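Input record (Table S2, row 646):
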Amino acid sequence: MVTDAVDQARLTVEGMTLAFGKRVVQRDLSFSVQPGSIFAVMGESGCGKSTVLKALIGLITPTAGRRVVAGENYDAAAPARRREIGRDFGVLFQNGALWSSLTVAENVALPLQMFTSLRPSAIDALVRVKLALVGLAPVGDRMPAELSGGMRKRAGLARALALDPGCLFLDEPSAGLDPITAKRMDDLILELRDGLGATIVIVSHELPSLFAICDDGIFLDAKTHSAIAHGAPRDLRDGCDHPTVRAFMTRALPPTEVLQENGHGGL
Amino acid sequence: MSEQPASSPVWRIEANADTYVLHLTGDWLSVALGADQGTVDAVASALVGLPGATVRTDAIGRWDTGLIVYLLQLRAAVAQGFVLDDTALSKPVARLLRLAEVGLAAPSPPMARPTVGWLARLGWVAIRGGREAIAVSDLLGSTLLRTGVGLTGRSQTRRGDVIALMRDAGAGALAIVAVVNFLVGGILAFVGAVQLERFGAEIFVANLVGVAVVREMAAIMTAIVLAGRTGGAYAAEIAAMQGAEEIDALAVLGVSIQDYLILPRVVALSTMMPLLYVYGCAFGLLGGLLVAVLTLDLSATSFVNQLIASVNADQFWIGLSKSVVFGLLIALAGCRLGLKAGRSASDVGRAATAAVVAGIVGVIAVDAVFALCANALGI
Ligand SMILES: Nc1ncnc2c1ncn2[C@@H]1O[C@H](COP(=O)(O)OP(=O)(O)OP(=O)(O)O)[C@@H](O)[C@H]1O
Ligand SMILES: [Mg+2]
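Output record (magnesium ion complex):
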C-alpha cells in the first residue's frame, strides 16, 4: 500500500537495487523527490548516477525495489500507462543523444509533432522560444554534428523542454559549459522550477551550481555500492562527516589517498 | 502535472484613468496555442488606439512556455509606438520572457542557400567525380604499398583483427554462399536441359554448367553475396566510427587509418573471396549435377566425365583471379564510402547502401572488362 508520505512525493524509490548482469551498481536505494524541488544525484564518476537516472525514467528495470511516480506504483503499471507517465518526463542525456539526422530545430519539434496537435506555425514558435531559452536560436537549422559539445548539451535541454514536462531529468547539464553559460543554465533551471513548477532531478559535479540550486539530494558511493548521505548539497558541505562526501564537497582528495609529509602513504 | 483539462486563456483590458491594464487569467498553455490562433490577434486589435498597457499575470492559472510565445507574438503584433509594459509581470514569467528575448535577439545567420545553375552543377559533378577518382586510386595505391610493408610485419595492422575479419567474411558466409551457388548451378542445368533436350544434346548440359559456373557465376554470385553482407557492413562500421569521432581519436594517436582499418579489411576480403569462390564452384557444380541427373536421362559418371573434358584450367584461373579482384574492389568500396560518410545516423545507412550498390555494379563492370580482355587474348 502506498503511504501518505509516498503519495505526496513526485517520485519515490524504495529499496531499489540496480545491476548489469551480476555486477551490482547500487544496492538498496531509498529516497523521495518532493514536487517542485531540485534533487541532486551526486557521487564519484562511475558510481551509478546515470544508471539511477535511467532507472527513474524507466529505461532500466531495477533488480529489486519499487518506484512510485506521483503516488502510482510504476513497477506495477502496464506498459501503456508507463508510456503515459513517461510523457511528463523531460530527459537530457549525458551525451545529449540528439537525433543526428535531424536539425537542432527538428530535434525539438519532433516530440511536439508526435504528441500534440499543434499547427506547424505554433510548433515553430514554441521551438524558437525553447531554443532561445537555451541560447541556441541562431543555430536551429544546423545538424547536431555541426555543434560544439556544450551546444549539443543545450540543444538536448531544449529538446527535454519540448513538451513542457512536469518532471525534468538532467544528466550533467552544465558539463562542458563556460562559467557564464553554466550560470545561465542554472538560472534557467531555477526559472523552470519556480515558474513552471517543474520537479527536477539533476546529476552534476558542478559544486557551485549544486550549492546554488539544489534543495535535496543523495550521495552515491562507488566502493560500497550504496547511498552514503542524503540531504541538500549545501547541508552536506556544512554538516556531513563522511570522508568521501567531505572530500567531494571540498574538492580535496580523500584522506586515504593523501601522501603524508614523511613520505609514507596513509595506508 | 495535474490531470485536469486545461481551461482556455482568458484576457480583459481594464482602464483606470489614463493607464490600461491587460489582465491574463485562465490557463495559458502551449497545448492551447493550436486551438486559438485568434487570441493574439484579438488582444492586439483590442489594444489598437491605446497609448500603451501594462500586462499583469497575478491571477493567471497554469502556464508554461506557451505563455512566453503568446507574449512574444503579442509584442510583435501590436502597433509601432505602442508600449507593452511587462514590468508588472510576475517574476518567473518576466525572467523567462527576458531569457527568451535575449536568446532571440542573437543575430541569425542567413538561412537561404545560394541557388546554382545547371551548368555549374554539372561542373561540380565533374569536379567531384574527378576528385573521387583520385581519392580511390590513392586509396588503392597506398593500400597495395602498405600491404608490402604489412607483409614484413612493420605496419600498425594487428594480426588478430585480420583473423577476426577473415572469420567474419569467410567462415561466416559459408552457408549463404553454398545455398546461392547451389541454386544457381541447379537453375543453369534446368534451363540448359530444356533447350538441349530438343536437339538430343543432353550431355552438353555438363559443358554449360561447368563453363558458366567456373568461369562466371561462382565468382559473381559469391561477390554479390559478399558485397551485400560484408561490403555494406564495412561501410556502416567505419561510418559509425566516423560519427562517434573514433576515427579522429585514432588519427590523434598517430594510428594510420590505412593500416588499422583498411588494410585488414582488404586483406581479409581478397583472401577469403578466392577460397569462397572455390567452395562456391563446388556447390554450383553439385547443384548442376543434381538437377541434370534428376531431370535428364544422364548418369552422374557421364556428367562428371563430360565436365572434366569441358572445363580446362584456364577457365578456373580466370574465375579465381576475378574473385581476388572482386574481393579487393568490395573491400575498398566499403572502406572508402564509410570514410567519406557524414556524421549522422542516416549517413551510416546511406554509406552502407552506397557500398552495396557500388560493390555490385563494380563487380559486374569488372567482370565485363575481364570478358573483353579474355576475348582479345583468345582464352
Ligand atoms: N550498459 C551497461 N552495461 C554494463 N555496465 C554498465 C552499463 N552502463 C554503465 N555500466 C556500469 O555501471 C557503473 C555506473 O555507470 P554510470 O554511467 O551510471 O556512472 P556515472 O555515475 O553516471 O558516472 P559519470 O559521472 O562518469 O557519468 C559503471 O561502473 C559502469 O561501468
Ligand atoms: Mg553519468
